[in-house]
């Protein structure tokens, strides 16, 4: 059924007051806020202040060094976050969309106690021009709160395919409220074909292969219609974690399929150490990446779980499965020892 089989144990702190057991257990608190493999472009507080003010910046592409440059000059008349003290500590953050992963983020320094910060900083991306032109630049301004969640102050989004690259001058742009289309991330990234199966502990009777604890089997078959980042196609592979465990023991990946936007992986992963009650608190995260020498490029992913927003009683933002993903996981939970087949769209995580 597959060319590769990986087997790893699913072990982590199941109860908040119980100490971790085993060399590859991971502390729940360290992974409760976000997955170790994918970060959201929107990680902060949107409800506290209204977007206002303007930002001055310029864009340029250095053909010689193959570098995209965002010159952040300054902002004016930003919203006040701490009304009692009449202060904001703003910084500017940029992302190249649809990639919302960690390597797509750049940010300026923080300017304290001002609503008119001056930066004069250049944020740089090493990227081919043709890849850049199929992306959008999301530039947002945030108040830095070292003790809590950062507050959103406004943003602007630019389609780089239609940008006038002869315009290298600094210009002022009004900051807008958050873009719902960007938050929802509705864009076509491809479709993953896979099967999953849960084998409960002791369910195989006296069979020699009867697992002492439960197992989750994940069979990644293929992906169709991936984003084509180069004329030759895309060199893709799939990463897998069972969250909340983001340790090296949880991490598995397929081989790289080169120059193919419809790669066939046929890769099976087996996680043991599962108890039936773990299924409502765990989440299988599968992400697809384009392999490059210097940095891998996030293409899309899925999260299989109940999508409750909670894991072992702790609020987590990676427990965000879509209706399709939740239904797929529930079907597996109800049909022990049976392969459940699915065709799920990749999305921004």
From TrEMBL:
Pfam families: C2. GO terms for cellular component: exocytic vesicle; plasma membrane. SUPFAM superfamilies: C2 domain (Calcium/lipid-binding domain, CaLB) (SSF49562). It comes from the Eukaryota. Its main location: membrane. Coiled coil: none annotated. Keywords: Cell membrane, Exocytosis, Membrane, Repeat. The keyword Repeat applies. It is found in: Cell membrane. Residues 51-173, 188-319 form the C2 domain. GO terms for biological process: exocytosis. The keyword Chaperone does not apply. One of its GO terms (molecular function) is neurexin family protein binding. This is Synaptotagmin-like protein 2. The lineage of its organism: Eukaryota, Metazoa, Chordata, Craniata, Vertebrata. The gene is Sytl2_1.
């Amino acid at each position: 059924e597959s060319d590769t089989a990986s087997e790893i144990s699913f072990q982590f702190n199941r109860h908040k007051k119980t100490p971790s057991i085993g060399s590859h257990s991971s502390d729940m608190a360290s992974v409760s806020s976000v997955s170790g493999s994918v970060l959201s472009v929107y990680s902060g507080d949107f409800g506290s202040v209204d977007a206002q003010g303007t930002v001055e910046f310029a864009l340029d592409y250095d053909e010689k060094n193959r570098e995209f440059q965002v010159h952040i000059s300054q902002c004016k008349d930003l919203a006040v976050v701490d009304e009692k003290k009449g202060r904001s500590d703003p910084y500017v953050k940029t992302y190249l969309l649809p990639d919302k992963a960690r390597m797509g983020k750049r940010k300026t320094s923080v300017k304290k106690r001002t609503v008119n910060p001056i930066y004069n900083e250049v944020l740089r991306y090493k990227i081919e021009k043709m890849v850049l032109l199929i992306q959008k630049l999301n530039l947002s301004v945030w108040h830095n709160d070292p003790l809590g969640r950062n507050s959103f102050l406004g943003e602007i989004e630019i389609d780089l395919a239609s940008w006038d690259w002869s315009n290298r001058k600094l210009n002022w742009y009004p900051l807008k409220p958050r873009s719902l289309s960007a938050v929802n991330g509705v864009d076509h990234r491809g479709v993953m074909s896979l099967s999953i199966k849960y084998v409960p502990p002791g369910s195989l009777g006296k069979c020699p292969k009867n697992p002492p604890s439960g197992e989750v089997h994940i069979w990644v078959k293929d992906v169709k219609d991936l984003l084509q980042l180069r004329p030759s196609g895309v060199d893709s592979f799939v990463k897998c974690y069972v969250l909340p465990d983001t340790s090296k023991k949880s991490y598995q990946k397929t081989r790289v399929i080169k120059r193919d936007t419809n790669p066939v992986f046929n890769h099976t992963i087996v996680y043991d150490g599962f108890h039936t009650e773990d299924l409502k608190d765990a989440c299988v995260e599968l992400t697809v990446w384009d392999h490059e020498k210097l940095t891998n490029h996030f293409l899309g992913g899925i999260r299989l779980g109940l999508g409750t927003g909670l894991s072992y009683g702790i609020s987590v933002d990676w427990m965000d499965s879509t209706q399709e993903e939740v239904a797929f996981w529930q079907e597996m939970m109800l049909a022990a020892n049976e392969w459940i087949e699915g065709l799920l769209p990749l999305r921004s995580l």
